[in-house]
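Hi V.,

Quick status before I head out on leave. The structure for the redesign project is tokenized and pasted below; the design run finished overnight.
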């Protein structure tokens, strides 16, 4: 029976390609196998299925009549195989998630809740974000911000990244207000950049309404962990020009951090959860990736709602510009 289904699978492919070579390539078999299977199939049903004199092969009237039924048989086989594969892979499967350090306050609870509902799954969380490590298959799922070219991958929206320039009230009381990006040159800046080679200067793009400004500032202390920069700002050591909203919404509500630069901000960028297309085919993986992206989008929306309650809708709309 399995041999018959394989023959029909070859028939369906050859019907579409009209080429023994292309069918062999598509199904990862050799050309003699394709030719033999079709010949045996024709002998079994007592009908000629292809006109081999034409190039590409032309299906006969009999082939046209049975094609839809044959395709349905092949599709059912694929669905059954996929279902069995998913069930086998789900048992004891490990999903490696690459997520930024600053998201740990949310990621732990998300993973806990999902694993509790899916006890056969296990999770390894990897940080910080490293695109090359993901490409080297050191993680199965990666949370990124901005438009990044990752070939053969599936991108799932997880909302948008909104950045807020902040400082502590005590710092501003002692050092004076910062109303424009050019004022940063007079202050100690803590950045959260991912730069391969440390340089003494970092350029920040800022936007306010339809105005753009690129500011190069000196940051002598830099860390890829956003919490590091936020802590420095909370301690009044300097300013942080681009904290993600989800990372500082608690402090903004409490008033321990306040916005600076009078509406100037780093442009917002889209957020994605990304996985490889080959992993996306696995049902258990696809379900988790979709759920994980939706949960992060919901968290971002709630952070934005909280921000509006403190500073108003116009403030959020300005920050949301990209």
């Amino acid at each position: 029976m399995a041999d018959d289904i394989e023959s029909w699978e070859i028939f369906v492919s050859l019907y579409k390609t009209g080429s023994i070579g292309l069918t062999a390539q598509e199904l990862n078999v050799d050309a003699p196998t394709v030719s033999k299977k079709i010949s045996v199939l024709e002998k079994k049903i007592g009908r000629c299925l292809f006109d081999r004199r034409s190039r590409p092969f032309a299906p006969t009237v009999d082939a046209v009549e049975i094609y839809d039924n044959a395709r349905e048989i092949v599709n059912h086989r694929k669905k059954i195989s996929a279902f069995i594969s998913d069930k086998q892979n789900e048992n004891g499967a490990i999903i490696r998630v690459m997520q930024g350090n600053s998201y740990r306050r949310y990621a732990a609870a998300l993973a806990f809740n999902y694993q509790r509902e899916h006890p056969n799954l296990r999770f390894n969380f990897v940080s910080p974000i490293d695109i090359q490590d993901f490409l080297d298959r050191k993680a199965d799922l990666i949370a990124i911000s901005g438009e990044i070219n990752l070939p053969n991958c599936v991108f799932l929206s997880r909302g948008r990244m909104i950045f807020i320039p902040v400082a502590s009230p005590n710092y501003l009381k002692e050092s004076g207000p910062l109303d424009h990006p050019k004022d940063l040159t007079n202050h100690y800046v803590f950045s959260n950049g991912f730069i391969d080679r440390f340089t003494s200067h970092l350029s920040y793009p800022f936007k306010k309404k339809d105005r753009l400004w690129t500011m190069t500032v000196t940051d002598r202390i830099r860390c890829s962990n956003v919490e590091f920069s936020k802590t420095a700002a909370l301690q009044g050591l300097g300013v942080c020009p681009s904290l993600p909203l989800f990372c500082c919404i608690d402090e903004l509500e409490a008033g321990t951090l306040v916005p600076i630069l009078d509406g100037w901000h780093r442009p917002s960028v889209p957020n994605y959860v990304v996985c490889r297309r080959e992993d996306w085919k696995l049902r258990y993986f696809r379900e988790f990736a979709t759920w994980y992206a939706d949960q992060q989008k919901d968290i971002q929306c709630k952070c934005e709602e909280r921000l509006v309650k403190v500073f108003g809708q116009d403030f959020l709309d300005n920050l949301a510009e990209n």
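Above is the designed sequence. The chain has three domains: 2-85, 94-156+271-303, 163-267.

G. will cover questions while I'm gone.

Best,
W.
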